[in-house]
Design goal:
By secondary structure, the chain is of the alpha/beta class. The protein folds into 2 domains: 151 residues, Aspartate Aminotransferase, domain 1; 239 residues, Type I PLP-dependent aspartate aminotransferase-like (Major domain) (Aspartate Aminotransferase, domain 2). The protein contains 15 helices and 13 strands. The chain has a 7-stranded mixed sheet with strand order 2-8-7-6-5-3-4, sandwiched between helices. Helix 7 links the parallel strand 3 and strand 4. Helix 6 packs parallel to helix 7 and helix 13 packs parallel to helix 15. Bound molecules: pyridoxal-5'-phosphate. The site of pyridoxal-5'-phosphate has 14 residues, from helix 6.
Length: 398
């Protein structure tokens, strides 16, 4: 072997350090612990990931089947006009806000992808540019890696139990806002189920316009409410704001990968320009299913009723056991103070009876001491989980 060959053999080809170092995606860690701790022969009941296991309504599945073409072409980046008007029609019914389907909306292959693209679209590269992404924490675990892949600086804004787990913009120093490119706002909030009222949204909108940063309001759970009805950030105007919406939760369509970005036409235009570099739109037959879903509200009410039943079941059980739930106003999540205070230890005790729940600390330091129950198993699965908890009695407490 010549010296040149030897050095070629020694040098591993490069990989982005974000893919080789750093933290594991929380669900990968949890799955490893599940394999280690869950008893053999007991079917795990999974409350960890926010992935609905309810049936997608039949009329939506039919719309997809009927749209499968003989000749399949690339879908246009902007999506079919009928998809955009189905979405803007729903938005007007739901929030009373009219959107221009040509300039103020863009379909996304699920909002997860939109979350990932956002920092790339707005964060500048040079030193003078605004490079900070503000993320209230604990948070949906995609905002932060997406910002880091885009080379942004991340400022985590801790949410607090004393604030009802609601984001309080005044707690972020002015100096941070001056260098902020993008604020992630998630209301109703994953993982705590808190939500911001209209005056709070107005305060955030005013701040963004004063300082000149973008707000991306992730409103994935806008249809899963059980008391007060969540507002959209776009009710406070479109300037400097886009909102994300998805069919994954509203219509039990997480496998279809269909969502929307809506709001300020300047950012929509930029994303439309960016998008062809990444891919194209959702397949046209999925768009046909999405049109059927956005055009119908009755099935979304049906989904909500299913989550309401599961929620009542768990809230009653937690109350009987004296376990404390915080926030949890909307979404299908319940934010439970871990009995004994250690969220990871509590989750491990639940894994031993075959229940999979997410430790709050996996979603950010400030989530420590809490666990997130995603009420996504069917009602029968939820009854079985309660039966296991009843049978374990004090065994799941420290
Ligand atoms: C807050 C939040 N945003 C976005 C998503 C992604 O949803 P989807 O990509 O299925 O539209 C999720 C999924 O759990 C979420 O919890």
């Amino acid at each position: 072997m010549s010296p040149d060959d030897r050095s070629a053999a020694a040098a591993a080809p490069p990989l982005n350090p974000l893919l080789t170092g750093g933290a594991e995606y929380p669900f990968v860690t949890l799955e490893r612990r599940r394999r280690e701790l869950a008893p053999a022969g007991v079917q795990p009941i999974d409350f960890s990931m926010g992935d609905p296991r309810e049936e997608t309504p039949g009329f939506i599945r039919e719309a997809l089947r009927d749209a499968i073409p003989v000749v399949s072409s690339y879908p246009a980046v902007a999506g079919q006009p009928a998809l955009r008007t189905a979405f803007t029609g729903w938005f007007a019914r739901r929030f009373g806000v009219g959107l221009d389907p040509d300039t103020q909306v863009l379909p996304a292959n699920g909002t997860k992808e939109a979350v990932f693209l956002m920092a790339f679209a707005v964060v500048g590269r040079d030193e003078a540019a605004r490079r900070t992404v503000v993320i209230p924490s604990p948070a949906y675990p995609v905002y932060e890696p997406a910002a880091r892949f885009a080379g942004a600086d991340v400022h985590l804004a801790p949410l607090r139990s004393g604030d009802g787990w609601r984001f309080v913009p005044e707690r972020v120093p002015e100096e941070v806002w001056r260098r902020t490119a993008l604020l992630w706002l998630n209301t109703p909030h994953n993982p705590t189920g808190s939500m911001l009222d209209r005056p709070a949204l107005e305060r955030v909108a005013a701040l963004a316009r004063r300082h000149g940063f973008w707000v991306v309001a992730d409103e994935a759970y806008a249809e899963l409410h059980f008391g007060a009805v969540p507002h959209s950030m776009l009710e406070c105007g479109l300037e400097n704001v886009v909102a994300l919406h998805t069919l994954s939760k509203r219509s039990a369509m997480s496998g279809y990968r269909s969502g929307f970005i809506a709001g300020d036409p300047r950012l929509i235009a930029a994303l439309r320009r960016f998008r062809p570099n990444v891919g194209v739109a959702t397949p046209d037959f999925v768009q046909a299913a999405a049109i059927a879903a956005w055009n119908d509200d009755a099935h979304a009410a049906g989904q909500r009723a299913k989550y309401a039943a599961k929620r009542t079941l768990f809230l009653e059980f937690f109350a009987r056991r004296g376990w404390r739930v915080e926030a949890s106003e909307a979404t299908f999540y319940l934010w439970l103070a871990a009995p004994g205070g250690d969220d990871v230890a509590f989750v491990e005790r639940l894994l031993r009876i075959g229940l999979v729940v997410l430790p709050g600390s996996y979603l950010g330091e400030t989530g420590a001491g809490f666990v997130r129950f995603a009420l996504v198993p069917t009602l029968a699965g939820c009854h079985e989980a309660i039966a296991r908890l009843e049978a374990a009695g004090a065994g799941v407490e420290p």
